[in-house]
Write a structure and sequence with these properties.
Number of strands: 3
Oligomer: single chain
Largest sheet: 3 strands, antiparallel
Strand order of the largest sheet: 1-3-2
Number of helices: 6
Order of helices and strands: HHEHHEEHH
Helix content: 55-70%
Radius of gyration: 18 Å
Structural class: mainly alpha
Amino acid sequence: MERLSEKELAAWRLFIKAHAKIIESIEQDLAAQKKVPLTTYDVLIALFEAPDRRLRFIELNRKVVLSKSGLTRLIDRLERDGLIQREKSEEDRRGSYAVLTNEGEKQLRKAWPVYAMGIKQYFAEPLSDGEIQDLTRSLEVIYKGLQSS
């Protein structure tokens, strides 16, 4: 196994700590404003951006950062809350879709200003335009490397 350098390990740790703190801060802001939590937002935005505002469950699972069992529990709750509905696939009777409801879109739109302000305040404001460009390029390199593996 190849060893990590101190610089690599320090960068990794700072990335993880910064990510966790930003997410925690945004979650607190959303809760204080009585908006949907980020996990719910993540599912709703994936559906909002999908064609016809619907995704097969397997596609949704690829787009959100949750375990399959965590997603199943969340989907059950979102369906009970009227934010999504399940729809059987016409092409494949075994498959089904998660579909964004009007109420789901409404809750998504209500949460966005709080989420956007959190991104601005906790992530973007401390950085200069050049630092944002450098970070974006660095993250693109990492992401593209993961896509090819």
